[in-house]
Amino acid sequence: MRHGSESHEARKALFQLGIRRGHLTVAEIDHALPSGSLSPAERWLLFYSLRAAGVEIRDDRGASLDELPGEPPAPDHA
Predict the structure, then answer these.
(1) What pLDDT, on the 0 to 100 scale, is given for residue 78?
(2) Tens digits of residue pLDDT in 8-65
(3) Residue 78 and residue 69: Cα distance in Å, rounded?
(4) Count of the separate structural domains present in the chain
(5) Mapping DSSP to helix (H, G, I), strand (E, B) and coil, where does residue 56 land?
(6) Is residue 25 in some structural domain?
(7) Interatomic CA distance for residues 25 and 76, integer angstroms
(8) Is residue 24 part of a domain?
(9) Domain assignment of residue 15, yes or no
(10) Is residue 70 part of a domain?
(11) Which pTM value belongs to this model?
C-alpha cells in the first residue's frame, strides 16, 4: 500500500506546485511520480485534472500543450 501513498503524495505536491506557479512541464510531472504508478488512462486524467485546476501543461521547451499526454479513459458503454 506504500506505493499508492507515495503516488498520492506526489500528485498532491504537483497540484500545489502547479497552482502556485501556474504551469508544470511534462518532464516535471513524470519525474515527480513513482515509476509505473499510473496507467495511461490515469496519467491522462492527472494531466486533465491539473489543467482543470488552472495549471498550464508545457512541453520541455516551455510551449503549452494542446493535447494531453496519455490515453483518455475508454467511454463507458453501459
Answers:
(1) 57
(2) 888 899 999 999 999 999 999 989 887 787 888 888 899 999 999 999 999 989 899 8
(3) 26
(4) 1
(5) strand
(6) yes
(7) 30
(8) yes
(9) yes
(10) no
(11) 0.79
